[in-house]
Amino acid sequence: MDAAYREVLDSGDISRALSRIAHEILEKNKGISDLVLLGIPTRGAHLAHRLAKSMADIEGVVVPVGTLDVTLHRDDLRSRPARALLPTLIPAGGIDSKKVVLVDDVLFSGRTIRAALDAMGELGRPKQVQLAVLVDRGHRELPIRADYVGKNLPTSIREHVRVAIVETDGSDSVSISERAESAAGSAAGSAAGSAAGSAEQAESAR
Description:
206 residues; Rossmann fold; 3-stranded antiparallel beta sheet; disordered C terminus
């Protein structure tokens, strides 16, 4: 692992967190009736499929799962680097009158979730929308709260949370950057602070 990061969740922690979230979703919704999982690409989509598998293992019934790309609904689209659109795949039954659980890896400012709600509004009218995230790091800019959280991770605004999953990164982990040194006159500390700030800006719209 990069020396600038320390691991806060390993593969076992992530597996247990997802298993717990799957049980919590089933308990809150009293089973899988009218339930649909929508993952936000990229990592949220893979996590949604993992949750669906865990829930199917528990209930013995397949849970509809899809993906929801939010790129064109972001309020910071002009200020972010251009990126390719990812597929939005809605299960055959649609989302009208369904209980939809949005799934993402990290909840930060809440702007990604607001964009997801806007995107979903063009696809149908769910009965209810819930939110499941692997990590909630705080620093909300919008009044959005997760219903299911794998790990609440208090962070400094200058720290960066990095989620790795097997499907895209080859392994499962959640790590956090060490805080930049604040000592004045330290060239190394200044460089670390700049790097942390740049990484944070790249992630700040979440």
